[in-house]
UniProtKB/TrEMBL annotation:
Name this protein carries in UniProt: Ribonuclease 2-like
Recorded superkingdom: Eukaryota
GO BP terms in the entry: RNA catabolic process
Signal peptide (UniProt feature, chain positions): 1-27
Organism lineage: Eukaryota, Viridiplantae, Streptophyta, Embryophyta, Tracheophyta
Pfam family, one: Ribonuclease_T2
Organism: Cucurbita maxima (Pumpkin)
Keywords attached to this entry: Disulfide bond, Endonuclease, Hydrolase, Lyase, Nuclease, Signal
A molecular function (GO) term: RNA binding
Length: 282
């Protein structure tokens, strides 16, 4: 595995996205360097300095969907035809080296129309795995995508520019660094019986991308895998700093042996919280 894996089976639309992104990233490099000292200002007037690096947070549906108790149209765990076998996107988060992060950096509200050309890959690879409405930046609640854009995406503007740029950039990085592929090739395949050494999973990712990921577990099962990047999207180590340790050392830390459960669309145990919704193909 090289450090620059590309999927040969990427559909044309995504290839097009790659090309677009290439010009976008060339344009943003110089902008990036010039804007190191830029102070981003959020809604409340609180000054936030520009972030230091990116975290690409990926979620493992097999683990998250096990916790599903309610169904609704926005929860992809409830979709019987879904057949998740890959890590999906949680978000791309601009972070500071000290383990804190900026949030709600501009007043830009989420507008789905701006990303209508990205909806197909977004629905597939950036699905919401819950029925909740997470908070947005204006004391409101919104969709999963609205939350990710308003809380985190707006802080990436020195690099990703705008909402479209944020989602496009995130999809591109996700396609380029295919963690599922890396783990599968190292023998870490979804299973409801196997346990895998945490160190082996970390090494497989390190060998492929030359940077150390961060794993988050729930009851001994991998729930998230985070990859970290410099602002030019070269991989870098995810360094668990003190304030991250505060989170990571609690119940979300991973044991020495972890599981990677298979995705099982639930159904029997689900209650429907959205009366207008039915299982597709049920
Ligand atoms: C269910 O999954 C299928 C296949 O991935 C997808 O086309 C469809 O949009 C999904 N439906 C919902 C409600 O998420
Ligand atoms: C990642 O790799 C897996 C296994 O090779 C493949 O099935 C999947 O389509 C790839 N995902 C993306 C987003 O390219």
């Amino acid at each position: 595995m090289g450090s620059d894996p590309q999927n040969p089976a990427i559909p044309m639309a995504i290839l097009f996205i790659f090309l677009l992104q290439f010009s976008l990233s060339v344009a943003s490099t110089s902008l990036n360097e010039a804007s190191d000292a830029v102070i981003l200002q959020n809604q409340g007037g609180r000054k936030q300095r520009e972030f230091d690096y990116f975290v690409l947070a990926l979620q493992w549906p097999g683990t998250i969907c096990k916790g599903t108790r309610h169904c609704c149209s926005s929860n992809a765990c409830c979709n019987r035809s879904g057949g998740f076998s890959e890590f999906t996107i949680h978000g791309l988060w601009p972070d500071y080296n000290d383990g804190t992060w900026p949030s709600c950096c501009t007043g830009k509200e989420f507008d789905e129309k701006e990303i209508h050309t990205l909806l197909e890959p977004m629905k597939k690879y950036w699905s919401s795995l819950s029925c909740g409405s997470p908070s947005t930046c204006h004391g409101a609640k919104g969709s999963f995508w609205a939350h990710e854009w308003e809380k985190h995406g707006t802080c990436s503007s020195p690099v990703a520019h705008d909402e479209y740029g944020y989602f496009l950039t995130t999809l591109n990085v996700y396609f380029k660094y295919n963690v599922t592929k890396v783990l599968n090739e190292a023998g870490y395949v979804p299973s409801n019986t196997e346990k895998y050494p945490l160190g082996g999973i970390i090494s497989a990712v390190e060998n492929a991308f030359h940077a150390t990921p961060l794993l988050v577990c729930s009851k001994g099962a991998v729930e998230e895998l985070r990859l970290c990047f410099y602002k030019d999207f070269k991989p870098r180590d995810c360094v668990p700093t003190d304030s991250q340790n505060a989170i990571v050392s609690s119940k979300i830390s991973c044991p020495k042996y972890v599981s990677l459960p298979s995705y099982e669309p639930g159904g029997k145990i689900f209650k429907f919280t959205d009366s207008n919704w039915q299982y597709p193909n049920a």
